[in-house]
Amino acid sequence: MVIPAPASVQTREGTFTPTSVSGHGAEYAGAALGLPVSEAGDLRLDLVDGPREAYTVMVDSSGIRITGSPAGLFYGVQTLRQLGVDGAFPAIEIVDSPRFSYRGAMLDVARHFFAVNDVKRFIDAIAGLKINHLHVHLSDDQGWRIQIEKWPLLTERGAQTSVNGDGGGFYTQADYVEIVEYAASRFVTIVPEIDMPGHTNAALASYPELTAEGVAPPPYEGMEVGFSSLAIGSERTYEFVADVLGELAAITPGPFLHIGGDESHSTTTEDFLAFAKRAGEIVAATGKTLVAWHELGKSSDLPRGSIGQYWGFTTPEGDSATEALSFVEQGGRLILSPADVAYLDIKYDDDTALGLDWAQGPTSLEAATSWEPTAIIPGLDEVHILGVEAPVWTETLATIDDVEFMAFPRLAAIAEIAWSPRMDATSRYASLRDRLPALGARLEAAGTNFYRAPGVDWR
Ligand code: TNX
């Protein structure tokens, strides 16, 4: 019934039908459950001290009680709303807390732009799965999506493009703050990414002074990667990085600033290392924690405690595992986004019209469900895994309906791996299949698009 599966569930005989809600966050809970708020609600939300996201849900013949911190209460409500049938809830005792503290989804708003309301819609859908971070990929070769006051041409020019010439767009800083606040109301932390020093054509096309030759390249609306680089030897580049990250840090209450670092194929290794050191110092000066794709682990000069995001395969190839472990050696931890199972822009099967297929072929729902975070990088202990994140890259996804189609139901599998106790892959898939029809019904009721993956008995 509940996705992600709670840590402990005991069901009993009987049901209870609440009539009103009281306690901490009663307004939100009442709206979510379709119940009025009253002083003496028979559905009580009790704020208690304890681990930040832990909660309990108790239903018996006398009423319903949810306990937790504010985040825990929010998750208790998400759990409860999945248990209800026509307003009645089964007698049950759930004691739940997450396996990993970082449970993420990523939305690439650079290859295609998504309006504020689309992002809010996506936040609602992921928060229901107890995902607590939304990483927003704000810049790439094909578009720059965040207003930077000191560098206005980034949006005046760099935001006009997208893959395929599907039009541009960007968030004003006020838009961004609106997204951050909406996310916070659902206990989702925004992790902004400015991808550097590669994946920067939109910035270079806006400001020729950022290029090595001092000549702006034309805008780019293709899909190939690895051809762009900031000028590494120029001080102007670091003024740019400091201005951009400084303005972004000032409007980002969350602890993380993601600086990309992937696929910098047009930057020499020497330059890449020089850039990593300088950019790391700039992030540290903002007071934020640096996050980057695993390639930045080539550098051993990162700020202590930086977070690496592993996007290699479940069986690591090349230097991906070594680069990822470098973050741990420098006092940090890892977010795991193995591309062959957690990249939600990859096709479900050969017939999926949308999506890419480079990550060792298509990724079925079963594949997205059937992996274990501690079994990927040899020598990586569970304590060094901050969590799990599923990226949705949008080269082929032009609308939020497209994004949702690729994300759901696979994101439910990723959320379960991130939240629920460890389980063997076969049992996890068998169990998830049984719980997905109810998720499908809820997504449908909310107007969220999803793929009716074969193997599930969708209603
Ligand atoms: C690789 S993952 C990329 C992205 C693409 C994605 C498409 C990563 C760090 N880089 O630039 O959008 O593949 O699946």
Describe this structure in a few short sentences.
With 459 residues, the chain is of the alpha/beta class. Helices cover 33% and strands 19% of the residues. The chain folds into 2 domains: 8-96, Chitobiase/beta-hexosaminidase domain 2-like (Chitobiase, domain 2), CATH 3.30.379; 102-446, TIM Barrel (Alpha-Beta Barrel).
Structure description:
The radius of gyration is 22 Å and the shape is globular. The mean pLDDT is 97. The chain has helices spanning 26-33, 70-83, 116-127, 153-156, 173-185, 201-206, 235-250, 269-286, 320-329, 339-342, 365-369, 400-407, 410-419, 425-446, and strands spanning 8-16, 21-23, 43-47, 55-60, 63-68, 89-96, 102-108, 133-137, 139-140, 143-144, 189-196, 256-260, 289-293, 307-310, 334-336, 385-392. The chain has 2 domains: 8-96, Chitobiase/beta-hexosaminidase domain 2-like (Chitobiase, domain 2, 2-Layer Sandwich); 102-446, Alpha-Beta Barrel (TIM Barrel). The strands form 3 sheets. An 8-stranded parallel beta barrel has the order 7-8-11-12-13-14-15-16, surrounded by 6 helices. With 459 residues, the protein is an alpha/beta fold. The chain is built from 14 helices and 16 strands.
**CATH class membership of the largest domain:** Alpha Beta
Quick check: average pLDDT? 97
- Helicity, as a percent range: 25-40%
Uncertain runs are none
Describe the biggest sheet?
8 strands, parallel, barrel
- What's the total count of β strands? 16
What's the CATH H-level superfamily name of the largest domain? Answer: Glycosidases
- Tell me the number of structural domains: 2
How large is the count of helical segments?
Answer: 14
In the CATH classification, which architecture of the largest domain applies?
Alpha-Beta Barrel
> Nearest-angstrom radius of gyration?
22 Å
- Which distinct ligands sit in these coordinates? ligand TNX
One letter per element, helices H and strands E, the order comes to EEHEEEHEEHEEEHHEHHEHEEHEHHEHHH
Order of strands, main sheet, comes to 7-8-11-12-13-14-15-16
Write the CATH fold name of the largest domain. TIM Barrel
* Percentage beta strand: 15-25%
Euclidean distance between termini CA atoms:
14 Å
Overall structural class, as computed from helix and strand content, comes to alpha/beta
